[in-house]
Write a structure and sequence with these properties.
With about 80 residues, this protein is mostly helical. It has 3 helices and no strands. It has one domain. The protein is elongated.
Length: about 80
């Protein structure tokens, strides 16, 4: 599939989508969901890459508790 870039107003895009058949709208939704899930998985992978592999559940809980205390006291 080529990467064709169109400049179109979002409202115009919604109007075009309304004109699609139910099956075509389902395909659009399926593609958007796939793109979203791929980006979400990439974001999770990036976050998990920053977590030290040897961190224990207790250490994670302590770090969360510390962060909550800092937010509640206005420190960041």
């Amino acid at each position: 599939m080529s990467d064709l870039m169109l400049k179109i107003d979002l409202d115009d895009l919604f109007e075009l989508i309304k004109q699609l058949s139910p099956e075509q709208r389902r395909l659009v939704r399926q593609r958007l969901d796939l793109d979203w899930s791929t980006r979400f998985a990439q974001a999770l992978d990036a976050i998990q890459a920053d977590i030290p592999p040897a961190i224990t559940d207790d250490e994670a809980a302590a770090a969360i508790e510390q962060a909550v205390r800092e937010v509640r006291t206005g420190k960041q």
